[in-house]
Amino acid sequence: MEKNKSSRNQEQIIYDRLFDVILEQKLQPGVRLVEVPLSEIFGVSRTVVRRALLRLSHEGVVEIKPNVGASVVTTPAEEVAQYFEARRIVECALIRMVVGKLSHYQVETLQAMVREENRYFDTGNRAKGLRKSTEFHFFIAEASKNQPLAEMAKQLIARTSLIVAQYNLSGSGGCACVDHSALVKVVLEGTPDEAEKLMDVHLRHIEESLFLKKQEVEPDLYALLKEV
Q1: Tens-digit pLDDT profile for residues 142-163
Q2: What whole-number distance in Å separates Cα of residue 106 and Cα of residue 204?
Q3: Rg, C-alpha atoms of the chain
Q4: How many C-beta neighbours within 10 Å does residue 200 have?
Q5: Domain check: are 50 and 157 in the same one?
Q6: Inter-residue contact 72 to 62 (CB < 8 Å)
Q7: What is the pLDDT of residues 55-112, one digit of tens each?
Q8: Residue 25 belongs to a domain with what CATH number?
């Protein structure tokens, strides 16, 4: 029993660390996630690594192909608009659900997220800023209390974050802190229609920042992940 518990803990650590560096856009779409070096980096068996990669494939951020292995998921240019359209539909519905309904604690949490996101970008910590930006959208999804839509939103947010990593040339990462501040304000003081419109504009800004041409980047897995 203890061995199984330890194995699950190791799997969770690998899952969390890989998910973080993927959402922080340190691991670019198309990068292979090879079991042997990953097992050496984390000091675990390949079986534990394989289970973590399988979970990430269920989240839609890793793809596993027979006789090829696992890699960070890529999105063909012709499918990009479909993912953003799906995300707009889901997130616009979710933000309508939270307008005027957040607790004082939830409001303070969102405002703190925006401040922290700003601080990270202002100090040049782009990776942490991107992660905080993603958490902002995850939080709104969870606050809706509609679990099926929230889970769908999380997968679409993660997938479009990878699309931004694949096709964004400016290095901005997509989301703008000023947009998030405005979203918090409209959730507090606006109407569902106003919130939906602002979320739609925000997500269209992200999509319009993309240059639909694949970027090739090969990272050092050891340097990225050994800090665990």
Answers
A1: 999 999 999 999 999 999 999 9
A2: 26
A3: 18
A4: 15
A5: no
A6: yes
A7: 999 988 999 999 889 999 999 999 999 999 999 999 999 999 999 999 999 999 999 9
A8: 1.10.10.10
What range defines the domain where residue 6 resides? 2-73+216-225
Q: Are residues 146 and 198 in the same domain?
A: yes
Q: Structure tokens of 160?
A: 């479009």
CB of 70 within 8 A of CB of 53?
Answer: yes
Q: Does one domain contain both 94 and 125?
A: yes
Tokens 């063909």 -> residue: 76
State residue 81 phi and psi, 5-degree precision.
-60, -35
* Residues 86-103 as b or e (16 or more Cβ within 10 Å = b): bbbbbbbbbbbbbbeebe
